[in-house]
Amino acid sequence: MRLDEFIEFEANERAERRRLAAEKDYGILDHLDSFERRFDEHVSDDAVVGSVSPSIFVGRADYPNVSTGLLSPVGREERAGAFETSAAWYDEGVSISDVFDRRTSLLNSTRGVDVADAGATGGVKSVGGGGGPAESVHDAWDGWLGVQREVAIADRPVDVEIGLDGRPDLDFEVGTEDIKTPTGPRAAARTADLGENPHVPRPVQKTLEDDDWRAEGAMTYLYRRGFDVYEINTILSAGALGQGENRRLVPTRWSITAVDDTVGQFLRGSIRDNPTVDRIEVHRNEYLGNAFWVILVPGRWEYELVEMKSPGSIWNPDPDAGVYLAAASEGREGRTGYVEETAGAYYAARLGVLEHLDDRGRQAKALVLRHVSDDYWGPVGVWQVREAVRNAFEGEFGAAETFGEAVRGVADQLPVSLGRLRRKSTMAAGLQANLGDFVDAD
């Protein structure tokens, strides 16, 4: 499909999506009332919750003394798997409100631990009881961390019994600011016990048993065995990957980016000797108020993400602020440091591009342009970036004769002028400019 035909086709599709889209929905604030009722029904007088945990959470505040949690969908145990972040959320077409509903429905039963020492809780011994020698995370298969790890490595939600440290006085009084951090209520946990023997896939057992395997190698092994990055980052977060006593709990946010980056590096190495794509391709996808344009150009691997955040969107809330631009890039050998400006979105989008090229047995230069519109009224997590880019390659795409034609055609659909884009983007910077390119759209 010619680029101009593709752009017209996409414009019509976007118009239809806008017609069908619901207004921004802050009903999540009312949703917490129903959670409170469910909580009252399912927490017994002895403060023990019988539940199902689909996932875990490791915080990053006060690292290395962190808060670790078992996440339980109180009163919705029969649908526990639906509350775990995964690629299925995209396939299901969840809305921002759906995400907030699921996230805030998870009771986070927490304990404080040291990331390397299973016997330390913020300097106080005895997680899971006992006053003996401190136990490393590597050996923690009993008590709180043991249950948490079993939940993380299982291939389905696990029955657990959680003893709370007294009946919690949960604060359900929230305002609109709370939508910026959609998390469920917390409760201090005293004990945790398994209600069943979890099923652990054989490849995961192999990574656990091999004490000489570096975490990076174990991650790529699991990925090559068909595990998605969502499953791998949970296992990494639980301290179940790495060399013996070097294993550590990894804060959830860090583990997500670590897995995206590690798998991305593996895929970049896999494609580096592949032939290049034989034409310039323009792919597009839109999800949850985020539009992505992916331009693939013949040549050796090169990648850049440019983000345009519209005023009124969650990360650029001032309606008079103008469009905020951020960018980061890499060449054939990748990067040596963490990307600050575009953070986890950089690695998530890169993974989607690399997976597509690896599937095709090709390599290319890739420019990803992300427009965050004011429809993105609440943050759902970097998973939506990953899945939107992964799925951008499905269906029709546009073809252009030159890179300049591709960028100019896409720029007409962006909230900034081509001139401003060229000033921010490394890949677009070399395009020959016309006077009209410098007329800002914002």
Written overview of the protein:
- With 442 residues, the protein is of the alpha+beta class.
- 33% of the residues lie in helices and 20% in strands.
- The chain has 13 helices and 14 strands.
- It has a 6-stranded mixed beta sheet. A 6-stranded mixed beta sheet has the order 12-11-13-10-9-14, sandwiched between helices.
- The model is unreliable at 121-134, 173-180 and 435-439 (pLDDT under 50).
| Strands in their spatial order, largest beta sheet | 1-7-8-4-3-2
Spatial shape: globular
Low-pLDDT residue intervals, each spanning 5 or more residues: 121-134, 173-180, 435-439
Sheet with most strands: 6 strands, mixed
Give me the count of strands: 14
Order of helices and strands: HHEEEHHEEEHEEHHHHEEEEHEHEHH
Count of helical regions: 13
Give the helix/strand layout.
Elements: H1 3-20, H2 28-42, E1 48-53, E2 55-58, E3 65-73, H3 88-92, H4 96-104, E4 106-114, E5 120-121, E6 124-125, H5 143-153, E7 158-164, E8 186-194, H6 202-209, H7 215-224, H8 229-237, H9 252-271, E9 280-287, E10 290-297, E11 302-309, E12 324-330, H10 343-360, E13 365-372, H11 383-390, E14 398-400, H12 403-411, H13 418-424
Parallel strand pairs: 4-8, 11-13
Antiparallel strand pairs: 1-7, 2-3, 3-4, 5-6, 7-8, 9-10, 9-14, 10-13, 11-12
Helix pairs in contact: 2-4, 7-9, 8-9, 9-10, 10-11
Question: What's the short story on this structure?
Answer:
With 442 residues, this protein is α+β, with helices and mostly antiparallel strands.
